[in-house]
Write a structure and sequence with these properties.
The protein is of the alpha/beta class. The protein is 47% helix and 10% strand. Strand 2 (136-141), helix 7 (145-155) and strand 3 (165-166) form a beta-alpha-beta unit. The relative contact order is 0.19.
Length: 247
């Protein structure tokens, strides 16, 4: 269910000590997307279960957790490597930590699964509506450009997005402000004119800290992170994002 900007901030104020209010001082002219409001990652984790029956869920959870921990640690430590390599390194660690024997061919199969991903079913109609309204769009994501190119090609989404804003350009993963700053620089717009579409709660918080009008595509229905940063809107899918952007 869509919660509009004003209502969501009002509700969140009851639960957070210092919520950030949304002030629509400028119309939204562009949307910067995290990778996963667009990209459906579930086939990767289905592949994990296929390769390791009965152990797939635990391994997937360990992999997901370590993957993002590595992005944060590498950014804090100034030891950047791209998301593809972080994904592989975190998989190797997660397998060892979970007591799963990961053969080289299994590792390669799981990594290649990332290049076979497609968009969520609700993406194309939403992008068509945003494009028709004159809204500019680009990915602003931790994923590498080849990973983003793959989902665009696999899903027939050519023509919607401006050049990818991969964190490879600044060698710092989100929520580092250097990553979010790519949006205003690429679009040549004020950050208040760019809506950020987040998939993870921590990314919604990071975008809000930066100053974007932030919409959380909360497909997993998880709670708001307790980081003193409330997204300006939240919904379970792309249709909700369209309503937020177009008002």
């Amino acid at each position: 269910m869509l919660v509009n900007r004003r209502k969501f901030v009002t509700l969140a104020a009851a639960t957070l000590a210092a919520p950030a209010a949304f002030a629509a001082t400028r119309p939204i002219k562009a949307v910067a997307f995290d990778g996963f409001p667009i990209t459906d990652p579930r086939p990767v984790f289905a592949k994990v279960e296929e390769l390791f029956p009965g152990k797939g869920h635990a391994l997937s959870e360990a992999w997901r957790t370590r993957l993002f921990e590595y992005t944060w640690l590498r950014t804090l430590g100034g030891r950047y490597v791209d998301f593809w390599h972080v994904t592989e390194q975190s998989l190797i660690f997660a397998a060892k930590a979970s007591g799963v024997g990961l053969a080289a061919d299994q590792r390669d199969a799981l990594m290649q699964a990332w290049l076979g991903l497609k968009a969520w079913p609700d993406v194309a109609p939403a992008l068509n509506e945003l494009k028709a309204a004159g809204i500019r769009m680009a990915f602003l994501a931790n994923l590498t450009a080849p990973m983003l190119d793959a989902v665009v090609k696999n899903s027939g989404l050519e023509g919607f997005f401006e050049p990818h804003l991969s964190t490879d350009k600044v060698r710092a993963f989100k929520p580092d402000p250097r990553a979010y700053q790519m949006g205003p620089e690429a679009f040549k717009l004020a950050k208040e004119e760019i809506a950020f579409a987040a998939f993870a709660g921590w990314d919604a918080a990071g975008a809000k800290w930066f100053g974007y009008p932030t919409f959380w595509v909360n497909r997993a229905h998880t709670p708001v992170e307790q980081l003193d940063a409330v997204p300006d809107g939240v919904g379970s899918g792309m249709a909700d994002l369209v309503k937020f952007v177009l008002g």
